[in-house]
Structure of Dihydrolipoamide dehydrogenase:
Amino acid sequence: MSSADEKTYDVVVMGAGSTGENVADVVVRGGLSAVLVEEHLVGGECSYYACMPSKALLRGTEAIEEARAVKGAAAAVTGEQDVAATLERRDSFTHDWDDSSQVQWVEGAGIDLVRGTARLTGDRTVVVTRADGGETTLTARHAVAVCTGSEAAVPPVEGLPGAQPWTPREATSAKEAPRRLLVIGGGYVGCEMSFAWSALGSQVTLFQQGDRLLPGAEPQAGDAVLASLRDRGVDVRLDSEVRAARREDDEVVLATAEGEVRGDEVLVAVGRRARTTGIGVDAVGLEPGEYLDVDDTLQVRGLPWLYGVGDVNGRRLLTHMGKYQARQAAAAIVARARGEEASGADWSPHAATADRAATPSVVFTDPQVASVGLTSAQAQEQDLPHRVVEYPIGSVAGASLFADGYEGTAIAVVDTEREVLLGVTFVGPAVAELLHAATVAVVGEVPIARLWHAVPAYPTVSEIWLRLLETWRG
């Protein structure tokens, strides 16, 4: 270290979200030094604007509805949800957007933290502009890990920026329910936030440009979520294109083919884009705004000292996959620092597909949608020999005990040549807890013949596995 404004570490990590934290933690435990650079909150999107606050907003509604679905317990639900208490509970998970506890963890893990905006300026060099305007130059002996994540994409709708739209950040941190909320986009975020805010008092109108919700999931999932949203009074408009937007005083006005629609706030939930603009990737020959092209060790192709980990590489934009990739990248960094081969042996041959063909995800709507691996459409697109097996979850004893009139569907996509699962989707109340068993089966390519001997406990919802296998056998 030559001065207070010039520091050298084994690894410099740009971005202190959950992905960056895990990269730094693993390399430090591997005997290297590491520094995290963060311009906002340590802990990132998941902790403050995504996974945790959004699920906290949804959980109260879910708990009430689970009680109402059981005769006897339903009689105890005599009032409506306390919106203020729900928002207060949400705030407790974000620590009121205070990252002190996360900073304490970083320090306790032996990781340094530099606050400010980071940009690459050359080979293994990162310059941080601090809040006071000063700069700190960080040099990495071995690696720089870009963990800057992704940000909400805003579609090119005329006037939309001037309409002051919500992104998921505003949707999960709002201090009160807007009277009328307009939602553009029927994917995971659009559906979850429509459920959350409609239950908390907003009149929600959801615009989906395509002909179904959750277009990347099995069709049954989108159909079930659509029916549930409409039952709750959400105005869902399929095949509806928002052509223009404007703000008039305290109102947002959206122009569609059907006419103008007015609301108090508009949430844009049409996807994400790489957060690689303004971080200096052009200084090392990369294109700002593009996802980083990486190999299976998360090393950026052509730059052996640079790693792109988590959302920033575009492989799977999910917190748990970012953490998974972080462990993978950090193991490679440590191995290479020791002069060892980063062969990937530590994470097995399945790692190359874990964040492509075997990614688990949950949509926390009612019904929940829990899925892993390929859908039937994806198997068809890849020309894989397959057969689709379905079974109503409500037909198993555990489901009928869980809720009166339980409705749900289990869908398995089976490779007919190898007789292993390519993908599994569950649609129904509380099905998220079924997902990890499916993930183990898909990632492990467990033969159907062996799954037959994994006997589910009776009476649990997991008995659906037995029914799926029986249906497969015919």
